[in-house]
Design goal:
The protein is 53% helix and 9% strand. It is an alpha/beta fold. The longest helix has 22 residues. It has a five-stranded parallel sheet with strand order 5-6-7-4-8, sandwiched between helices. A three-stranded mixed sheet has the order 1-2-3, covered by helices on one side. It contains 21 helices and eight strands. The structure holds adenosine-5'-diphosphate and magnesium ion. Adenosine-5'-diphosphate binds next to helix 7 and helix 14.
């Protein structure tokens, strides 16, 4: 193998003319990808560009100082070893921040797969010889390696969405699951599930996945119009196996972008590719989206993620506390799960702050410390729904008299809303069962318990009823 060595940096020959070097780099990438996993590889290592080679030293370029430092600390030694094994005369890898005009990162697709297959046998033959799946780094927002199926805590409110996501990750483009439309309030795990699908697909093989927010989709589209490269943009989009667009509600009112998305959508589905979309509302509630788009969005699998329950919040907190290695007493977890009911993101934020505090000061987490450290967060959540408000809203919604919330009447049309109100009181306030019972005409706590169970069961069986109750909850919470 001959390598163009030149003392003058500016005379460094571009990659196309330096096929041997590019092939070496490609093999190194293949091995690294095998070693660190696709997500990490994609997050950090696809950003590296090849710089000049000078004697026993090769320079690699990174777009920012942060990335350079990170790659140096995490992968520096390994990169040196791998280069040395490719080109024994190389002993050092120099990492630098790229300057304008420096070579761009190598697109894995730039080098013909044949040159990859012809790689010399290495001890890790799979990583060295397998053609590297095409990485559409131009289309991909790096997947967040924390968001996997393993780190997603499953409970009643999200089990359906989770099962659908898993199914799509296992068998993309199955009949009935394309598109997969995930919806739910903010901070409930939509993005997490989409990244998990992406990570799983990428891990399992030769699938090209593009994930981006609807906002990014729009900016890319506009940029393509400006640079008169809409055809390339469309072709790129239409060449992926799986397209995931997050927060589709962003396209409301953006008619041109909607139009483009609609065509891309149709082209991909017709070609048997998988689409995954998330939004804050169901397709039918996304008023402002074109009708034909809403219709198409709704014709695969629509899965909603409900607001968290106390049980799910506890499970999530337990999982995250365990992962952090900090001991958080059950009392504190319960306290948080009672106080922070809005969404998982805020719950996680609160727990992270507690953990950081405990690590920093080396003090155990206690209830007092929690109240102190989270003072501001807890105060913001103190505007809590009262049982009276719940009774009033529920009575209005189901058209019964407020006094029937505490009356002894047992007719179904009165008893059912009363049960819903009890259920919501349990979900949305921190009152105990006996306290709730008292507010509903001095009923026993077992009556409240029964109501909670009954409503939970009904919600599972009756989607329309579940939607009604969810709606009530959202109205009360906002
Ligand atoms: P959304 O996209 O619905 O607004 P995200 O997916 O960004 O919400 O979730 C917000 C945060 O909460 C993320 O850090 C995510 O990892 C976490 N999260 C949400 N749901 C769960 C869950 N069921 N298990 C573990 N973490 C979760
Ligand atoms: Mg999101």
């Amino acid at each position: 193998m001959t390598i163009g060595v030149d003392d003058d940096e500016s005379a460094f020959s571009p990659l196309e003319n330096n096929k041997g070097l590019a092939e070496s780099w490609l093999r190194i990438c293949g091995r690294l990808k095998g070693e660190v996993g696709e997500v990490e590889y994609r997050t950090w290592l696809t950003q590296i560009a090849l710089g000049p080679i000078d004697g026993d030293e090769i320079t690699l370029l990174l777009p920012t100082r942060f990335l350079r430092d990170w790659v140096r600390s995490q992968y520096g030694d390994r990169l040196s070893e791998l280069w040395h094994s490719e080109i024994p005369s190389l002993r050092r890898v120099e990492l630098q921040v790229a300057r304008p005009g420096d070579p761009a990162p190598l697109q894995v697709a730039d080098v013909a797969p044949a040159s990859v297959t012809a790689a010399p046998a290495t001890e890790d033959s799979t990583a060295g010889t397998k053609p590297v799946p095409e990485v559409r780094s131009d289309l991909v927002t790096a997947l967040d390696s924390r968001f996997t199926f393993e780190t997603f805590v499953v409970g009643k409110p999200n089990e359906f969405a989770y099962a659908c996501a898993r199914r799509v990750a296992e068998k993309p483009s199955s009949v009935g699951f394309n598109p997969l439309f995930l919806y739910g309030g903010v901070g409930l795990g939509k993005t997490h599930l989409m990244h998990a699908i992406g990570a799983e697909l990428v891990r399992s093989g030769n699938v090209s996945v593009a994930y981006m927010s609807a906002e990014k989709f729009m900016y890319r589209f506009i940029a393509a119009i400006r640079s008169q490269s809409t055809i390339e943009f469309k072709e790129q989009l239409r060449s992926v196996d799986v397209l995931m667009i997050d927060d589709l509600q962003f396209l409301i009112g953006k008619d041109n972008t909607q139009e483009e998305f609609f065509h891309t959508f149709n082209a991909l589905v017709d070609a048997g590719r998988q689409i995954v979309v998330s939004a804050d509302k169901s397709p039918s509630d996304l008023s402002g989206l074109e009708d034909r788009l809403r219709t198409r969005l709704g014709c695969g699998m629509v899965a909603d993620i409900h607001a968290t329950t106390f049980e799910l919040r506890i499970s999530i907190l337990e999982a995250k506390a365990t992962a952090s290695g900090v001991v958080v007493p059950g009392k504190v977890l319960e306290f948080l799960a009672h106080k922070i009911t809005s969404n998982v993101r805020e719950l996680e934020g609160a727990l992270n702050r507690l953990i950081a505090h405990a690590n920093l000061f080396g003090r155990p987490v206690t209830l007092e410390a929690t109240q102190d450290v989270l003072h501001d967060i807890l105060k913001a959540h103190d505007r809590r729904v009262t049982i009276e408000e719940i009774q009033k809203k529920v009575a209005e919604h189901w058209n019964i008299r407020l006094t029937d919330m505490s009356s002894a009447r047992r007719a179904r049309n009165v008893a059912r809303p009363r049960q819903v109100a009890m259920y919501l009181a349990k979900q949305l306030t921190s009152r105990s069962l006996p306290e709730i019972g008292r507010k509903f005409g001095n009923r026993d706590h077992t009556t409240v318990m029964h109501a909670v169970q009954r409503v939970t069961e009904l919600m599972e069986r009756d989607a329309a009823f579940a939607e009604d109750v969810e709606l009530m909850r959202r109205m009360l919470e906002s």
